[in-house]
Design brief:
single chain; elongated; eight-stranded mixed sheet; seven-stranded mixed sheet; alpha/beta
Length: 457
Amino acid sequence: MSDGVTARAVISSVTDGFTEHTPPWRPIPPDGPLSWEGYDASRARAAARTGEEESVVYGVGSLGGRAFVVLAFEFGFLGGSLGERTGDRLEAAYRLARERRVPLVSLVATGGSRMQEGMVALTQLQRVARASVLLREAGVAHIAVLRDPTTGGGWATVGAGADVILALPGAQVGFAGSRVRPPDADPAAYTAEGQLAAGHVDAVVPADGLRGTLARWLAALGGPRPAPEPAPPPEARAPAAPSAAGPSAAGPAPASLPESGWEAVRRARDPRRPRARAYLDAYFADRLPLSGDRCGGTDPGLLCGIGVRDGRAIAYVAQCGTATRPAGYRTAARVIRLADRLGLPVLTLVDTPGAANDAEAERAGAGAAIAEAFAAVASARVPVTTLLIGEGGSGGALALAAPDNTWATPDGYFSVIAPELAAAILKRPRDQAPRTAEQLRLRPQDLVELGVVRGIV
C-alpha cells in the first residue's frame, strides 16, 4: 500500500511556491528498450490516471524564504518505479541543485526499478549515484523524506544516499519490497521506526510536522555562509599565561579548581554536574538531531546533529557520560564528515569514562570505529572546537578532541587511563587510586600546563 498522496500534493504541502522543471524529452522506442508487450499501454494508463508523464516531478520550491530544489515521486505512475526517463529527471534535479547551490529535498515513494525496462532501468541507479557524488563534492546538502513505500533502488540511492534522512511514521522502508522479502522476515525491520532504531534514519516525523521540520533544516543548511573561523567555545578566553595554579590570566577565574587529582575525578563523576544536554540547550537556539551510524547501530549515549546559534549552523557531537559504543564513534565520524562537506564548524563535548570494551563492542569493531573518529577529526578542513565537560577517559575520549583547540571546564579531567585501572596495572591496592590520580596529573590546570588543553572555561 502507498500513502496515497500524489507528487504534486506532497510538494504543495511543504512549499510556499513551486516552479516545475522538465529535462529535454527523448523519444522512447515502441514498448520501451525491451519491446515489452503492453508497456506503452501501461504508460498511457498511468499518465491518464495521474496526469504525469513520468514517475518523478521536480523543480524549484521555496519555504520560509529559502529556495531549494524539490523532487517528488508519483507512486501512482507505475508504482513510482525508476525507468530511463525517470533517471533523466533525477539527474536533472541533482544538477539543478548543484548549479544553483541550494539544498535538494527528495520526497521518495517508490517500489524500485521498472521491470519493463530491465537492466536499462537498473542502470539508472548508477546515474543517481554519480549525481549524488557530484552534489556532495559541491558541498550542497541533500535531505530525503521517506514516504510509504520507499523500497528497492530508490531507497538504496536517492533515500539512503542523502545527508539527512527523515521518514513518515509507519512508512515501509527497506531494500526488499513486501512481495520479494523472505516469508519469515520480521516486518518491523522494514518500517521507518525499525530503520530509525537500526541507525539508518535520522528522525521519524509526523506528516503534520514535516513542513515545519523541513523549514528548520533549510534554515540551518540552506543559505550561503561566510568562511568559518576557529573560535573557542562560549565564554572561553584564550590563555595568555597558562600555569599549573589555575586558568589563564586573561580573565576572571572560573569556578574553583580541584585541589587534587582524585578531587578532579570525583567532580567529573558527580551526577549533579551539568551534562551534555544542558550545555547544548544553553548554547543553541535550535537543534536538529542526526542519529545512527548507517551500519545498523545507534548509541543513546551520544548526541549528534546540527545546532543553530545567532542564525549560524554548527555541527555538534556530544558524549553524555557513558562509555561510547562503536556505533557512537561511527555516527560522530559521519556527522563530522558531513559538516566538513557543507562547510560547517564543529563543536564536540567530551564526557566519557572511555570506549565501551565489552565483547559486543569488540565484535562491533570498537578499534576501527575509534580510528574512524580520530581520522574524521584529523582530516576536517573546518574548525573543530572541543570542550571537556566531564570525564576524559583514554583514547575513547581523545578520539573526539580537536588537536590544539580543546578547552576544559573545572569539572573535567583527561587521563591516559582511569586511576583505578592504572593502580590495578601497577599492582597497587585499590586504595592507592587517589595517589595514582595525583601522579597522572589529570586536573584541568595540569592539562593546561602540559599543553593538552588551551585553557579553562
